[in-house]
Protein backbone atom coordinates (compact mmCIF):
# COMPACT_ATOMS: atom_id res chain seq x y z
CA UNK A 1 0.00 0.00 0.00
CA UNK A 2 1.35 3.43 -0.91
CA UNK A 3 2.11 5.49 2.18
CA UNK A 4 2.01 9.25 1.67
CA UNK A 5 3.84 11.59 4.06
CA UNK A 6 1.56 12.80 6.86
CA UNK A 7 2.09 15.88 8.94
CA UNK A 8 3.22 15.27 12.52
CA UNK A 9 0.60 16.50 14.99
CA UNK A 10 3.08 18.68 16.86
CA UNK A 11 4.85 20.01 13.79
CA UNK A 12 2.36 20.59 11.00
CA UNK A 13 4.98 21.50 8.42
CA UNK A 14 7.23 18.47 8.89
CA UNK A 15 5.85 15.27 7.28
CA UNK A 16 6.34 11.94 9.07
CA UNK A 17 6.54 8.57 7.31
CA UNK A 18 7.08 4.98 8.42
CA UNK A 19 10.20 3.30 7.04
CA UNK A 20 12.20 0.10 7.29
CA UNK A 21 15.85 1.13 7.45
CA UNK A 22 18.48 -0.47 5.24
CA UNK A 23 22.27 -0.38 5.32
CA UNK A 24 24.47 2.34 6.74
CA UNK A 25 25.89 4.94 4.34
CA UNK A 26 28.91 7.20 4.53
CA UNK A 27 28.18 10.01 6.96
CA UNK A 28 26.53 7.80 9.57
CA UNK A 29 23.05 7.78 8.07
CA UNK A 30 20.84 4.77 7.25
CA UNK A 31 19.45 4.27 3.78
CA UNK A 32 15.73 3.66 3.24
CA UNK A 33 13.36 3.93 0.29
CA UNK A 34 9.97 5.57 0.00
CA UNK A 35 8.00 5.22 -3.24
CA UNK A 36 11.22 4.77 -5.20
CA UNK A 37 13.00 7.70 -3.60
CA UNK A 38 16.06 7.24 -1.36
CA UNK A 39 15.75 8.63 2.16
CA UNK A 40 18.85 9.18 4.33
CA UNK A 41 17.87 8.77 7.97
CA UNK A 42 19.71 9.81 11.14
CA UNK A 43 19.44 8.26 14.62
CA UNK A 44 18.50 4.79 13.37
CA UNK A 45 20.07 1.37 12.80
CA UNK A 46 19.93 -1.13 9.93
CA UNK A 47 16.77 -3.24 9.98
CA UNK A 48 14.76 -1.02 12.31
CA UNK A 49 11.14 -0.08 11.64
CA UNK A 50 10.82 3.59 12.51
CA UNK A 51 8.75 6.72 12.09
CA UNK A 52 10.83 9.40 10.36
CA UNK A 53 10.26 13.14 10.30
CA UNK A 54 11.43 14.46 6.95
CA UNK A 55 13.77 17.42 7.16
CA UNK A 56 14.36 18.00 3.44
CA UNK A 57 11.27 16.66 1.65
CA UNK A 58 11.36 18.64 -1.61
CA UNK A 59 8.99 16.97 -4.06
CA UNK A 60 11.41 17.40 -6.96
CA UNK A 61 14.45 16.11 -5.05
CA UNK A 62 16.06 12.82 -5.99
CA UNK A 63 16.47 11.96 -2.29
CA UNK A 64 15.14 13.06 1.06
CA UNK A 65 16.66 13.35 4.54
CA UNK A 66 14.96 12.64 7.83
CA UNK A 67 15.28 11.98 11.56
CA UNK A 68 13.92 9.05 13.54
CA UNK A 69 11.23 10.28 15.93
CA UNK A 70 9.86 6.89 17.05
CA UNK A 71 11.29 3.39 17.01
CA UNK A 72 8.61 0.77 16.28
CA UNK A 73 10.93 -2.24 16.01
CA UNK A 74 14.33 -1.65 17.61
CA UNK A 75 17.65 -3.15 16.59
CA UNK A 76 19.22 -5.53 19.09
CA UNK A 77 22.20 -3.19 19.03
CA UNK A 78 20.26 -0.11 20.17
CA UNK A 79 21.18 1.13 23.66
CA UNK A 80 20.45 4.17 25.79
CA UNK A 81 22.20 7.11 24.14
CA UNK A 82 25.54 8.03 25.71
CA UNK A 83 24.31 11.62 25.63
CA UNK A 84 21.11 11.46 27.75
CA UNK A 85 19.80 14.70 26.28
CA UNK A 86 19.72 13.07 22.84
CA UNK A 87 17.23 10.40 23.92
CA UNK A 88 15.02 13.09 25.42
CA UNK A 89 15.11 15.12 22.20
CA UNK A 90 14.51 12.19 19.84
CA UNK A 91 10.72 12.33 19.78
CA UNK A 92 10.30 16.03 20.59
CA UNK A 93 12.90 17.76 18.39
CA UNK A 94 15.58 15.50 16.84
CA UNK A 95 16.85 18.49 14.89
CA UNK A 96 18.13 19.82 18.23
CA UNK A 97 20.38 16.82 18.89
CA UNK A 98 23.94 18.21 18.80
CA UNK A 99 26.25 16.80 16.17
CA UNK A 100 29.24 14.77 17.26
CA UNK A 101 27.71 11.59 18.74
CA UNK A 102 25.50 10.31 15.93
CA UNK A 103 26.23 6.64 16.73
CA UNK A 104 25.75 7.13 20.47
CA UNK A 105 22.54 5.06 20.47
CA UNK A 106 24.35 1.89 19.31
CA UNK A 107 26.64 -0.44 21.21
CA UNK A 108 30.32 0.20 20.61
CA UNK A 109 31.19 -3.11 18.95
CA UNK A 110 28.34 -2.68 16.45
CA UNK A 111 29.45 0.87 15.68
CA UNK A 112 32.76 -0.58 14.52
CA UNK A 113 31.00 -3.13 12.34
CA UNK A 114 29.10 -0.32 10.63
CA UNK A 115 32.27 1.71 10.13
CA UNK A 116 33.99 -1.29 8.55
CA UNK A 117 31.00 -1.72 6.23
CA UNK A 118 31.22 1.93 5.15
CA UNK A 119 34.97 1.74 4.51
CA UNK A 120 34.56 -1.46 2.48
CA UNK A 121 31.67 0.00 0.47
CA UNK A 122 33.57 3.19 -0.33
CA UNK A 123 36.64 1.26 -1.51
CA UNK A 124 34.54 -1.11 -3.61
CA UNK A 125 32.50 1.70 -5.18
CA UNK A 126 35.14 4.41 -5.68
CA UNK A 127 38.36 2.41 -6.03
CA UNK A 128 36.92 -0.86 -7.38
CA UNK A 129 38.89 -2.63 -4.65
CA UNK A 130 37.82 -5.27 -2.10
CA UNK A 131 39.86 -4.75 1.09
CA UNK A 132 39.23 -8.37 2.11
CA UNK A 133 41.73 -9.40 -0.59
CA UNK A 134 44.55 -7.88 1.47
CA UNK A 135 43.33 -9.19 4.80
CA UNK A 136 41.42 -6.18 6.13
CA UNK A 137 40.16 -7.38 9.52
CA UNK A 138 37.74 -4.64 10.54
CA UNK A 139 37.94 -1.57 12.74
CA UNK A 140 40.23 -1.82 15.76
CA UNK A 141 39.89 -0.17 19.15
CA UNK A 142 42.49 2.50 19.99
CA UNK A 143 45.17 1.95 22.57
CA UNK A 144 44.08 2.52 26.18
CA UNK A 145 40.37 3.00 25.50
CA UNK A 146 37.63 3.15 28.12
CA UNK A 147 35.05 0.39 27.83
CA UNK A 148 32.22 2.87 27.35
CA UNK A 149 34.06 4.84 24.65
CA UNK A 150 33.53 8.13 26.48
CA UNK A 151 35.76 11.03 27.55
CA UNK A 152 38.33 10.68 24.77
CA UNK A 153 38.29 14.12 23.16
CA UNK A 154 41.22 16.22 24.36
CA UNK A 155 40.14 18.96 21.96
CA UNK A 156 36.55 20.14 21.77
CA UNK A 157 35.02 23.01 19.80
CA UNK A 158 31.86 24.82 20.85
CA UNK A 159 29.79 27.60 19.39
CA UNK A 160 28.13 30.44 21.28
CA UNK A 161 24.41 31.13 20.84
CA UNK A 162 22.73 34.54 20.77
CA UNK A 163 22.20 34.41 24.51
CA UNK A 164 25.94 34.02 25.09
CA UNK A 165 25.67 30.38 26.13
CA UNK A 166 28.09 27.55 25.36
CA UNK A 167 26.54 25.58 22.51
CA UNK A 168 27.11 23.01 19.77
CA UNK A 169 25.73 22.92 16.26
CA UNK A 170 23.05 20.42 15.39
CA UNK A 171 24.05 17.99 12.66
CA UNK A 172 23.97 19.46 9.12
CA UNK A 173 22.78 22.77 10.54
CA UNK A 174 23.88 26.19 11.76
CA UNK A 175 21.35 25.86 14.58
CA UNK A 176 23.09 26.15 17.96
CA UNK A 177 21.98 24.02 20.90
CA UNK A 178 23.02 25.01 24.46
CA UNK A 179 25.45 22.31 25.63
CA UNK A 180 26.38 22.38 29.31
CA UNK A 181 28.03 18.94 29.15
CA UNK A 182 29.88 16.97 26.45
CA UNK A 183 30.34 13.26 27.37
CA UNK A 184 32.88 12.58 24.63
CA UNK A 185 35.24 15.23 25.97
CA UNK A 186 37.78 14.47 28.68
CA UNK A 187 36.45 15.32 32.13
CA UNK A 188 38.67 18.41 32.37
CA UNK A 189 36.58 20.14 29.70
CA UNK A 190 33.29 19.95 31.62
CA UNK A 191 35.12 20.70 34.88
CA UNK A 192 35.83 24.24 33.65
CA UNK A 193 32.12 25.06 33.85
CA UNK A 194 32.13 27.47 30.91
CA UNK A 195 28.38 26.99 30.57
CA UNK A 196 28.16 29.26 33.63
CA UNK A 197 29.93 32.18 31.94
CA UNK A 198 28.40 34.91 29.77
CA UNK A 199 30.19 34.35 26.45
CA UNK A 200 28.52 37.20 24.57
CA UNK A 201 30.89 38.55 21.94
CA UNK A 202 32.43 35.18 21.11
CA UNK A 203 31.71 33.05 18.07
CA UNK A 204 33.68 29.94 18.98
CA UNK A 205 35.26 28.36 22.04
CA UNK A 206 37.93 25.69 21.61
CA UNK A 207 39.23 23.80 24.63
CA UNK A 208 42.41 21.70 24.54
CA UNK A 209 42.98 19.54 27.60
CA UNK A 210 45.98 17.19 27.40
CA UNK A 211 46.41 14.76 30.24
CA UNK A 212 48.39 16.13 33.18
CA UNK A 213 48.22 19.80 32.11
CA UNK A 214 45.85 22.70 32.71
CA UNK A 215 43.60 23.13 29.66
CA UNK A 216 44.01 25.93 27.14
CA UNK A 217 40.82 27.82 26.26
CA UNK A 218 41.01 29.46 22.83
CA UNK A 219 38.36 32.10 22.14
CA UNK A 220 37.37 33.47 18.73
CA UNK A 221 35.38 36.73 18.32
CA UNK A 222 31.91 36.55 16.81
CA UNK A 223 32.97 39.23 14.31
CA UNK A 224 36.55 40.07 13.24
CA UNK A 225 36.19 43.87 13.23
CA UNK A 226 37.55 46.13 15.94
CA UNK A 227 34.21 46.34 17.78
CA UNK A 228 33.87 42.56 17.69
CA UNK A 229 37.38 42.08 19.05
CA UNK A 230 36.61 44.53 21.87
CA UNK A 231 33.46 42.59 22.87
CA UNK A 232 35.38 39.33 22.63
CA UNK A 233 38.14 40.74 24.81
CA UNK A 234 35.61 41.51 27.54
CA UNK A 235 34.26 37.95 27.31
CA UNK A 236 37.81 36.57 27.42
CA UNK A 237 38.43 38.46 30.66
CA UNK A 238 35.24 36.98 32.14
CA UNK A 239 36.41 33.49 31.16
CA UNK A 240 39.87 34.10 32.63
CA UNK A 241 38.39 35.27 35.93
CA UNK A 242 36.10 32.23 36.03
CA UNK A 243 38.77 29.58 35.38
CA UNK A 244 41.53 31.28 37.41
CA UNK A 245 44.69 29.17 37.41
CA UNK A 246 42.77 26.04 36.34
CA UNK A 247 43.30 26.90 32.64
CA UNK A 248 45.09 29.25 30.26
CA UNK A 249 43.03 31.59 28.10
CA UNK A 250 43.92 33.07 24.70
CA UNK A 251 42.09 35.11 22.09
CA UNK A 252 42.47 34.35 18.38
CA UNK A 253 41.74 37.44 16.30
CA UNK A 254 41.93 38.34 12.63
CA UNK A 255 42.32 42.08 12.96
CA UNK A 256 43.45 43.91 9.86
CA UNK A 257 47.21 44.14 9.74
CA UNK A 258 47.82 41.56 12.46
CA UNK A 259 47.24 38.32 10.60
CA UNK A 260 49.92 36.98 8.29
CA UNK A 261 48.93 34.79 5.33
CA UNK A 262 45.39 34.46 6.67
CA UNK A 263 46.54 33.20 10.05
CA UNK A 264 44.97 34.55 13.20
CA UNK A 265 46.82 36.65 15.76
CA UNK A 266 47.01 34.75 19.05
CA UNK A 267 46.69 37.04 22.05
CA UNK A 268 47.46 35.78 25.57
CA UNK A 269 44.82 36.60 28.17
CA UNK A 270 46.09 34.43 31.02
CA UNK A 271 48.55 31.57 31.34
CA UNK A 272 50.27 30.49 28.13
CA UNK A 273 49.25 30.14 24.49
CA UNK A 274 50.66 26.67 23.87
CA UNK A 275 50.55 23.11 25.21
CA UNK A 276 53.08 20.33 25.53
CA UNK A 277 52.22 16.87 24.24
CA UNK A 278 54.22 13.68 24.71
CA UNK A 279 54.41 10.47 22.66
CA UNK A 280 56.83 7.65 23.45
CA UNK A 281 59.21 10.04 25.21
CA UNK A 282 59.11 12.64 22.44
CA UNK A 283 57.95 16.10 23.52
CA UNK A 284 55.91 18.30 21.19
CA UNK A 285 54.94 21.92 21.58
CA UNK A 286 51.54 22.75 20.04
CA UNK A 287 50.24 26.30 19.88
CA UNK A 288 46.61 27.12 20.58
CA UNK A 289 45.57 27.13 16.93
CA UNK A 290 47.90 24.28 15.94
CA UNK A 291 46.80 20.78 14.92
CA UNK A 292 46.96 17.73 17.16
CA UNK A 293 44.92 14.51 17.10
CA UNK A 294 41.78 14.81 19.24
CA UNK A 295 41.58 11.30 20.77
CA UNK A 296 43.84 11.03 23.78
CA UNK A 297 45.30 7.73 22.45
CA UNK A 298 45.40 8.73 18.77
CA UNK A 299 48.98 10.09 18.58
CA UNK A 300 50.45 6.88 20.02
CA UNK A 301 48.05 4.55 18.18
CA UNK A 302 48.71 6.16 14.79
CA UNK A 303 52.45 6.59 15.34
CA UNK A 304 52.87 2.91 16.14
CA UNK A 305 50.73 1.92 13.15
CA UNK A 306 52.62 4.23 10.76
CA UNK A 307 56.04 2.94 11.82
CA UNK A 308 54.88 -0.69 11.61
CA UNK A 309 53.39 -0.11 8.16
CA UNK A 310 56.25 1.89 6.62
CA UNK A 311 59.16 0.16 8.34
CA UNK A 312 61.51 3.17 7.98
CA UNK A 313 65.11 2.06 8.32
CA UNK A 314 68.45 3.69 9.02
CA UNK A 315 69.94 5.73 6.15
CA UNK A 316 66.58 5.99 4.32
CA UNK A 317 64.99 9.18 2.96
CA UNK A 318 61.38 9.91 3.89
CA UNK A 319 58.88 12.70 3.34
CA UNK A 320 56.15 13.54 5.86
CA UNK A 321 53.41 15.45 4.05
CA UNK A 322 50.72 17.48 5.85
CA UNK A 323 53.07 17.03 8.79
CA UNK A 324 51.27 19.16 11.37
CA UNK A 325 53.37 19.75 14.46
CA UNK A 326 55.84 17.09 13.36
CA UNK A 327 54.51 14.00 15.15
CA UNK A 328 55.39 11.48 12.42
CA UNK A 329 58.40 13.52 11.28
CA UNK A 330 60.01 13.22 14.69
CA UNK A 331 59.56 9.45 14.87
CA UNK A 332 60.72 9.02 11.27
CA UNK A 333 63.84 11.07 12.03
CA UNK A 334 64.64 8.76 14.93
CA UNK A 335 64.14 5.69 12.70
CA UNK A 336 66.34 6.84 9.79
CA UNK A 337 69.04 8.25 12.06
CA UNK A 338 71.45 11.08 11.38
CA UNK A 339 72.59 9.43 8.13
CA UNK A 340 69.04 9.42 6.79
CA UNK A 341 66.76 12.34 5.96
CA UNK A 342 63.19 13.50 6.56
CA UNK A 343 61.41 16.22 4.60
CA UNK A 344 58.59 17.61 6.77
CA UNK A 345 55.99 19.63 4.82
CA UNK A 346 53.18 21.68 6.39
CA UNK A 347 51.18 24.56 4.95
CA UNK A 348 49.61 26.24 7.99
CA UNK A 349 51.95 28.95 9.32
CA UNK A 350 51.34 28.42 13.05
CA UNK A 351 51.55 24.64 12.80
CA UNK A 352 54.65 24.90 10.63
CA UNK A 353 56.27 27.00 13.37
CA UNK A 354 55.40 24.25 15.85
CA UNK A 355 57.09 21.67 13.62
CA UNK A 356 60.24 23.79 13.36
CA UNK A 357 60.45 23.98 17.15
CA UNK A 358 59.71 20.28 17.61
CA UNK A 359 62.32 19.15 15.09
CA UNK A 360 65.11 21.61 15.84
CA UNK A 361 67.18 18.90 17.57
CA UNK A 362 66.96 16.55 14.55
CA UNK A 363 69.52 17.73 11.96
CA UNK A 364 68.35 15.04 9.52
CA UNK A 365 64.89 16.68 9.38
CA UNK A 366 64.22 19.59 7.03
CA UNK A 367 61.01 21.50 7.74
CA UNK A 368 59.43 23.26 4.76
CA UNK A 369 56.27 25.32 4.66
CA UNK A 370 54.08 25.20 1.58
CA UNK A 371 51.57 23.25 -0.48
CA UNK A 372 52.53 19.62 -0.88
CA UNK A 373 52.45 19.64 -4.67
CA UNK A 374 54.59 22.80 -4.90
CA UNK A 375 57.21 21.55 -2.47
CA UNK A 376 57.46 18.17 -4.20
CA UNK A 377 57.81 19.89 -7.58
CA UNK A 378 60.77 21.78 -6.17
CA UNK A 379 62.17 18.46 -4.96
CA UNK A 380 62.03 16.96 -8.48
CA UNK A 381 64.95 14.65 -9.07
CA UNK A 382 64.92 13.20 -5.56
CA UNK A 383 63.36 9.82 -4.90
CA UNK A 384 62.42 9.14 -1.27
CA UNK A 385 62.27 5.60 0.03
CA UNK A 386 58.93 6.36 1.63
CA UNK A 387 56.23 8.97 2.04
CA UNK A 388 53.81 9.47 4.92
CA UNK A 389 50.79 11.62 4.16
CA UNK A 390 48.06 12.64 6.59
CA UNK A 391 45.88 15.11 4.67
CA UNK A 392 42.79 16.92 5.96
CA UNK A 393 39.36 15.31 5.70
CA UNK A 394 39.07 16.35 2.05
CA UNK A 395 42.00 14.08 1.18
CA UNK A 396 45.08 14.67 -0.94
CA UNK A 397 43.38 15.15 -4.32
CA UNK A 398 44.59 14.92 -7.90
CA UNK A 399 47.44 17.44 -7.77
CA UNK A 400 49.03 16.07 -4.61
CA UNK A 401 48.63 12.44 -5.70
CA UNK A 402 50.28 13.24 -9.03
CA UNK A 403 53.14 15.07 -7.30
CA UNK A 404 53.73 12.17 -4.91
CA UNK A 405 53.66 9.61 -7.69
CA UNK A 406 56.10 11.70 -9.75
CA UNK A 407 58.83 11.40 -7.08
CA UNK A 408 58.32 7.61 -7.19
CA UNK A 409 58.57 6.59 -3.53
CA UNK A 410 58.95 2.88 -2.94
CA UNK A 411 56.13 2.90 -0.39
CA UNK A 412 53.43 5.33 0.68
CA UNK A 413 51.84 5.26 4.13
CA UNK A 414 48.48 7.02 3.88
CA UNK A 415 46.77 8.16 7.10
CA UNK A 416 43.17 9.20 6.51
CA UNK A 417 40.19 10.34 8.57
CA UNK A 418 37.57 10.05 5.82
CA UNK A 419 36.57 6.86 4.02
CA UNK A 420 35.27 8.57 0.88
CA UNK A 421 38.26 10.84 0.18
CA UNK A 422 40.61 7.97 1.03
CA UNK A 423 38.91 5.63 -1.45
CA UNK A 424 38.97 8.34 -4.12
CA UNK A 425 42.70 8.86 -3.58
CA UNK A 426 43.37 5.10 -3.67
CA UNK A 427 41.80 5.13 -7.13
CA UNK A 428 43.96 8.09 -8.15
CA UNK A 429 47.10 6.33 -6.93
CA UNK A 430 46.06 3.18 -8.81
CA UNK A 431 45.97 5.26 -11.96
CA UNK A 432 49.55 6.27 -11.21
CA UNK A 433 50.75 2.70 -10.77
CA UNK A 434 50.36 2.24 -7.00
CA UNK A 435 48.32 -0.52 -5.38
CA UNK A 436 46.90 -0.85 -1.89
CA UNK A 437 48.77 -3.63 -0.06
CA UNK A 438 47.95 -3.09 3.63
CA UNK A 439 44.99 -1.55 5.44
CA UNK A 440 44.16 -1.01 9.11
CA UNK A 441 41.33 1.06 10.57
CA UNK A 442 41.01 2.48 14.07
CA UNK A 443 38.00 3.72 15.99
CA UNK A 444 39.55 6.99 17.12
CA UNK A 445 36.14 8.71 17.16
CA UNK A 446 33.87 6.45 19.29
CA UNK A 447 30.13 7.18 19.09
CA UNK A 448 30.59 9.13 15.84
CA UNK A 449 30.61 7.83 12.27
CA UNK A 450 34.26 8.79 11.76
CA UNK A 451 37.26 6.44 11.72
CA UNK A 452 40.97 6.67 10.99
CA UNK A 453 42.80 4.44 8.51
CA UNK A 454 46.48 3.63 8.02
CA UNK A 455 47.24 2.12 4.62
CA UNK A 456 50.29 1.17 2.57
CA UNK A 457 50.49 1.67 -1.19
CA UNK A 458 53.35 0.28 -3.26
CA UNK A 459 54.44 0.65 -6.83
CA UNK A 460 53.01 -2.15 -8.93
CA UNK A 461 55.55 -4.56 -10.32
CA UNK A 462 56.09 -4.13 -14.05
CA UNK A 463 55.57 -7.34 -15.98
CA UNK A 464 58.68 -8.37 -17.92
TrEMBL record:
InterPro entries in UniProt: MeTrfase_TrmA_AS (IPR030390), NA-bd_OB-fold (IPR012340), SAM-dependent_MTases_sf (IPR029063), TRAM_dom (IPR002792), U5_MeTrfase_fam (IPR010280)
Name of the protein in question: Class I SAM-dependent RNA methyltransferase
Keywords in alphabetical order: Methyltransferase, S-adenosyl-L-methionine, Transferase
Protein family (similarity comment): Belongs to the class I-like SAM-binding methyltransferase superfamily. RNA M5U methyltransferase family.
Active site as annotated: 417, 417 (nucleophile)
Binding site for S-adenosyl-L-methionine: 293, 322, 346, 390
Protein's UniProt keywords contain Magnesium: no
Listed PROSITE patterns: SAM_MT_RNA_M5U, TRAM, TRMA_1
Domain of life of the native organism: Bacteria
Domain TRAM: 6-70
Entry keyword Amino-acid biosynthesis: no
GO molecular function, one term: rRNA (uridine-C5-)-methyltransferase activity
Gene Ontology terms: biological process: rRNA base methylation
Transmembrane segments: none
Pfam family, one: tRNA_U5-meth_tr
Amino acid sequence: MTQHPTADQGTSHTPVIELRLGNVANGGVMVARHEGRVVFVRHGAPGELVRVRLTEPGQGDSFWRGDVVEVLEASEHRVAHVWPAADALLAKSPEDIPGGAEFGHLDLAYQRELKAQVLTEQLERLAKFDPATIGFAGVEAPEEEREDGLHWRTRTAFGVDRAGRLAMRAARSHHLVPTPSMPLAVEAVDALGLDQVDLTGLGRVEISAPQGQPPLVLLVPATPDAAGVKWAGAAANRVARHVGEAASVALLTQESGTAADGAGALRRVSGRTWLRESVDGHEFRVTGEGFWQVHRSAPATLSHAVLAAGEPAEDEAWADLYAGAGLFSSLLAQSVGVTGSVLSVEGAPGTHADARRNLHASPQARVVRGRVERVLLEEAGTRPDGVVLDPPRSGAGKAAVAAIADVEPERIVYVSCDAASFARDVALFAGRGYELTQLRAFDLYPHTHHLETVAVLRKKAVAS
